[in-house]
């Protein structure tokens, strides 16, 4: 058994403390996975990921399939070598790209996605998503699912659940034919859809659990809905999942969302938000988000966050210089701010684990809520 979740504190509901044991090391949960979409972090160097507190990284199977191709990754020694990272890696299946890439369309047995470079249509089927991940050899692969664009649209969400379940069964059979986790050494996680509808979330979770996956994720959340609706989707899903398996909430990563999802029993997260916000000049600090492009920072000699122990702040590059560089699209500010923000999130997760261990989670939750207001819904 090369993947096992050990629950240390908490149960079916509420904040949980745990350890995800993988063949490449232990992940202390709740944990946040930085996103290296094409197998590369955008900014931070691979050898700085451990010191920032990262335990597991995420890469995207569809993007790696599109370029350079799984066979090229294999020829270079596999995904971990490609990423220069010896810790555990999870690959996402590309279901979210069917929602996020403009021009993608859905068919009964595939998502047809425009190639990110060539623009030609790629028929991304459940089997192709599975085989690509089998070739990439991450520690955890995700099933291809359908992520509906509007979590409130009941008809569309119900159709997405039906398709997600049919595709999940197909991929579970491929996984079993390959010997499952025990033989292949690769875990396969299923994704619960169902939007903001409790009965659809429950039916989806129940059907997936009966198929016996190695772990479960919650998808179709954080697609533009407001904070309250997002947390309903999380709550409805988490409540249905087995207490002794890891629960992964996909695509959520603001401080407020992370803490509120942990309060609802989530163990694992990923999101592009912290690094992307950094590349746009926003710094996450104990006092909230700072927009370093603001004129107020023009002559500010301080580092990104005084007192921060991260490698980016340790360089001493002043806020005023970062601001000037951002205005000229220099790479260094984007790299330093992405690193600092990811370090900030990793520190937040560590504080959260410590707070759960010390029975002090509610106080921590209130403190975060007082600084970080929910992200506004997208129009
Ligand atoms: Zn820092």
Concise synopsis of the structure shown:
The chain is 40% helix and 18% strand. It is built from 15 helices and 16 strands. The termini are far apart.
Which small compounds were modeled alongside the protein? zinc ion
CATH architecture of the largest domain: Alpha-Beta Barrel
User: Any idea what the shape is?
Assistant: globular
Strand content: 15-25%
Instruction: Please compute the radius of gyration using only Cα atoms.
Output: 20 Å
Mean pLDDT: 95
Strand arrangement, largest sheet? 4-14-13-12-11-10-6-5
Give the number of DSSP strands: 16
CATH topology of the largest domain: TIM Barrel
User: How many structural domains can be distinguished in the coordinates?
Assistant: 2
- Report the span from N to C terminus: 45 Å
Instruction: Using the coordinates above, name the CATH class of the largest domain.
Output: Alpha Beta
